[in-house]
Amino acid sequence: MHETLLAIQQQLAVVISQLRSVIPNDEPIGVAQANWGFAALSRADLIDGVQALIDRIEYEGCLASLRQVSRKPLHSNHFPPLPG
Questions:
Q1: b/e per residue, 19-37, with b = 16+ CB within 10 A?
Q2: Residue 24: which residues within 8 A CB-CB, separation 6 or more?
Q3: Alpha helix (H) ranges present in the chain?
Q4: Distance between CA atoms of 30 and 26, rounded to whole angstroms?
Q5: CA 37 – CA 34 distance, rounded (Å)
Q6: Distance from C-alpha of 40 to C-alpha of 21, rounded to nearest angstrom
């Protein structure tokens, strides 16, 4: 996978750890702050969104690697000799 994508994944993992440390529980944020003007998102909802980005980067990075492998030409020495 490209080094930029790896760096982005690492930073997103840092965001997840910060969300876990800053938000004390999984209660919806609007309820926890006693403010109905906030979105009713919980810590788990925020973490799931960030994790979905990490998973998507991983998936797309794997696809890109497969595309590069499939473009390489095959040489005759890649196959063992057939019997008979």
A1: eeeebeeeebbeeeeeeee
A2: 32
A3: 3-22, 29-32, 43-71
A4: 11
A5: 9
A6: 19
Q: Which range (1-5, 17-21, 74-78, 80-84) has the least confidence?
A: 74-78
User: Is 37 strand, coil or helix?
Assistant: coil
Span 63-72, mean pLDDT?
Answer: 68
Question: Per-residue confidence at 50, pLDDT binned at 50, 70, 90?
Answer: very high
Q: What's the pTM value of the predicted model, to 2 decimals?
A: 0.68
Instruction: Please provide the DSSP assignment of 49-67 as one string.
Output: HHHHHHHHHHHHHHHHHHH
CB 64 within 8 A of CB 1: yes
